[in-house]
Amino acid sequence: MLAFEGSLRWLNMLCNPLTLPGAEAIVGALEKSCILATVCGLQEGEARIDLRGRTLQPCDAVLLAGDLQKGALGGACCGVYTIQLDDNNLAGRGKEHEPEKPEGLRRLARALRVNSTVTRLSLKRNLLGVEAARALAETFAAARTLRDVDMRHNAVGVDGARRVAEAMAMRPAQWRQYNGVPLGELMAGTMQQLDLSDASIGLDGGLVLANWLSHNDSLTALELSGNELGGHSSKVVTTAISDMLQLNQGLRSLTLRRNALKSYDAQALAKGLARNTRLTTLDLQNNAIGADGAKSLVEALRSSDTLEAGGGKLWQWFKSAVGAHGSQVRPEKLTSSEELMRLDLGGNPVGKDLLASLKGPCRASINIST
């Protein structure tokens, strides 16, 4: 059995070619030692652990977990508030399609559950997969001190994203930020406009944000362009946004440009739009919703209470990229509403079927041009 004798108090075993059993043996010896404070080379009294870009592997996550648990007993990690682990390989795989090795992350997640000081955790670009996300979700549901988490640029998948969002929704008042989304400010109702364009919030960030906005009416304008929220066959984020639109009574403007939205994403959004009574501006420019997606949105506009109620509820701009050809059409009618001023589907070969579906009673100028 491995044991550390004498007066050894500081040891750094990170970035060594250890096996997981070997790392566990080192942590076991750390736990039994009355003198040794760290096996990750941490300095006592540090408030931040910065291990970014160190090519850390799952075995290193086991070692760090050991240090965190030792910290609860007065080790080197006893006062740590921030852990930065960006740009490593804690999932233990070379590419996204390769099987992950989640044992190290599971061990680290368990250590964080019982930790009483860490408030901020950053795990960007670690090739984290579904299993790692599941383990971390359990931690988010149980940890009492975590406030700020960043897991952008990973591959947690649909199930992993759902687990994370569900876990964080259990105690919404606890969180300040997730993947750059200012959850604390949203919860406090102090924001009216939020620009997250090109923020790479990911599937998980999109689901977390949709959950928060379902119970927050202070935000009036939301910019989410360039976050690749669409294109997933499960329609996971667009369905969540659609559900949010049915509940939220504050949002007036929603921009979803450049999100790789497909026809099924547009169909999911249409369900929320048909029942939303407050949104006045929707921008879906530079996506690929296709003619079927555009039809669904047009039908949603027809049945929208916002359009029929009048009273200043104005759909100012409705934009969607569905192709490359163009034509200009000014149908006599679209809906029974006189509020619709402009429907812009710039740069789109929508086809004769869609043009026919746009016929209806309306004063609006409908542009389908390149």
From TrEMBL:
GO molecular function terms attached to this record: GTPase activator activity; small GTPase binding
Record's keyword terms, sorted: GTPase activation, Leucine-rich repeat, Repeat
GO terms of biological process kind: nucleocytoplasmic transport
Cellular component GO terms, alphabetical: axoneme; cytosol; nucleus; perinuclear region of cytoplasm
InterPro entries: Leu-rich_rpt, LRR_dom_sf, RanGap
Matching SUPFAM superfamilies: RNI-like
Subcellular location, principal: cytoplasm
Protein name as annotated: Uncharacterized protein
Taxonomic path: Eukaryota, Viridiplantae, Chlorophyta, Pyramimonadophyceae, Pyramimonadales
